[in-house]
Amino acid sequence: MQYKSIKKDDWDKALEQLILSHTIIAGTGDGSGHDYELLKSSGIERIVYNKPKPATPLKSFFLPVRENVTSPAGTEKPRIIIGVPNCDIEALSILDDIYLDKDFTDTLYRERRENTLLISTDCFGTQEHCHCLSYDIKPYSERNADLAIISLDSKIIFRVLSQKGEEFISKIEGIGTLSDDSVLKAIEQEHRLTESKLNESNRDLPGYKQTGELVSGSKKEIWEKYSSHCVSCGACTTICPTCTCFLLIDKPGFEKVKQMDACQYPGFERVAGGEDALFELPHRFRNRYMCKYVWKPQKFKSLACTGCGRCIEACIGKISKNELFRELAG
Hints:
Largest sheet: 8 strands, mixed
Oligomer: single chain
Helix content: 25-40%
């Protein structure tokens, strides 16, 4: 794996210049948390490196909540997204499987993907509900992104993951090949420490395949128990980096509007005759887990849950899917 480095001050200066020619979105924040924002010169110092995770899932930048799919796309600046955790990078794989299908390509999604340079960030540390490693997803990227970024000892270090990423950093003044083995060892140590924390906090959580088997073979009682706290707000699906259901709404003038939808909304499967296979809340509640752990793995090669834990954090009813899975496995 190829590593490059640059002084932090030089990287900040490079970002100031890149803002003139690119749309840059970066994870910024303070001690209480962070999220993505459109980067301006005044925000460069607030960029967060190596901490999980922005509140907004990466999918939001490729699948808008609402868009007119019949309107011609405008010319946009090249886009750079900085600070993406690997749980979101891996989640993008299943979106690619769906929206870049060779027979049914979503052209708007494809244009956004091609116009975007993805810079992931290695997670040094965890949050309460992070469980990526339980699904064999590492807390740092080795594929799918263009670059991975690490901030260490007043230096910015890049792990090159694609040809696109290599071409990008080759144009930045002050970039050089990292040859200091002590820095690489320090990065490796941070990786191992984060993995150790993830293993410890999720030691009794079943893996992805086992979870699918448990969900598929479960009884109705457990779904009645956990769904009793569900208010059908759809927060778990809208915040999820892999959930992508949508409505296609016909508008006057032969326009079509794509509106993100959620399987937890009442009426999600209601048809014109009034029938609704998911009318009962426990059935609708279980449907989401069947989709993520059983049906999508059967159709796609990518995981439909990458262990980010956002659904647990966003739930108004304080429902933890991990507690549900532990109970199923108990």
